Amino acid sequence: MTETAHSCQIPRPLLLTVEMSDGARLSVLRYPSSTGAPAPAVVVITPYRKESAMHMELLARPIAEGYEVLVADVRGFGGSTGAYSGVLSPREIDDGVELLEWIAAADFCTGRTALVGGSYSGLNQLLIAQRDPRSLRCIAPWVAPADTYRDMWKRGGIPSHTAWGAGTFLNSQRPEAQAAILQAFYRDIVGTGLDGELFRASSPDLASIHTPAFFGTGWFDYFLAGTVRAFRSLSGPKRLQIGPWSHEPFLTEERRQELSRWLGYWLRDIGDNPCTPEANAVLWCVGTEEFHTHGGWPATSDIGWRRWAPVDEPTTVPILPSAAGVPPPPPTQVHLMVDVSTNSGWRLWGEATTFNSEPCREPVRLLGPVALHAVLAAEGCSDFDLNARLSIVKADGSVRQLTEGRLRASHRALDEDRSEHAPGGEVVLPWHPHEAAEPVPDDEPVRLVVEIYPICLQLSPGERLRLGLTLTRSDDSDVPADAMLLPETVVLLPRSVS
Fold first, then answer.
1. Residue pair 74/47 in contact by the 8 Å Cβ criterion
2. pLDDT tens digits for range 326-352
3. Model confidence over 174-211: pLDDT tens digits?
4. Separation CA 114–CA 100 (nearest Å)
5. pTM of the model
6. Is 451 helix (H, G, I), strand (E, B) or coil?
7. Which residue stretches of 196-348 are H helix?
8. CA 284, CA 459: separation in Å to the nearest integer?
9. What's the CA gap between 140 and 117, in Å, rounded?
């Protein structure tokens, strides 16, 4: 027996091998139920190796509560065999469905299964749930993307998570899942600039998922927008928890309690329904530093949009050869481990130019997405990346990072029908097709509508908002240039009306 930091006795796992329909074999660690009788099964399917201690952060509580807990390597990783045909391939999702069927039929299981896990192991839950396995009673995707292009590999059309492939595939153990797949990852995913079938095939059709889903994330997680989008899109039973967290795998007691209640209700029929529409979202409010219960996520039509114009005259903003020349912001209370290891850039880039709002005269509550309409005229640069960060400037002058957004200027085209609008017609939640690149005309204004990740905060009297911008070239030149930020630029803030 081993013991975690949470003083939970973890039984020694049993090593299982489960054969798939194409002859591949999945390697699975089974932590038997302490009840000695058949129990519901809680399942994680991971490319991060089933033996990793990080899984116990999530699984220690289900193990202690007497569930059957199983952790499986995806094919081609660790002890699992089979040809690996790409990140979240249809064959990999087939494996997930077949594994659940095998577990549900095993003599140690009651026939009820649940999927849990974060990040990659959250996205694969959505893809598996879309297949509607018979035994799957619920899922719990944590810090999970929902659209592999927009949330994962090309946020704003800009390459993201470029270090992920090296770290993950070199840890796969199996040579056949290393060289060839690494080459494909950096050629087909990182090296592809526009959205297309490769990314759509590995993204779930959210509207078709009816399995009860508990979404968990943090306000500082780089998959936050995708998690909120998934929660809003599902039509079946659902719950959302957002706390003051990042993408790190360390769980707080609030997260464990929510998962415990979720599994208890759907796998054992105990407790109250966690999906009642009037109380199915638990959101941490920055500023009040406490959780509040909400009835879902606010519709854009229910938000009192507040306009903030950061400049009242044309203002020069440098376009840098790269962001490396700008010092990163000071450390925050949010763990940087995952940002560094994945090269995600959430808190790694500095701000070349900043603009402060007027100080608040009374408390202001903000809840929802933020939209930046940046109107710029660039000279001598045909394409650039815009990184925008929103921070709080406290009355004593200290700064607290809040949220961010990004967009490649050549990807500025909008799908008006898929974008969401304020009652006055302005786009407040943009949808960029990312299907074509349009160069930036020389010294002519262009409008970049940037999705800034959602916020939930209360500003106190004397506090300000800060908009930080960094523009970097994404054309074939490394010569510094300038853009003019024009007075038509506006930040649309989601003032809560509840």
1. yes
2. 888 876 666 777 777 788 877 788 999
3. 888 888 889 989 999 999 999 999 999 999 999 999 99
4. 9
5. 0.95
6. strand
7. 197-201, 224-233, 253-268, 337-342
8. 14
9. 7
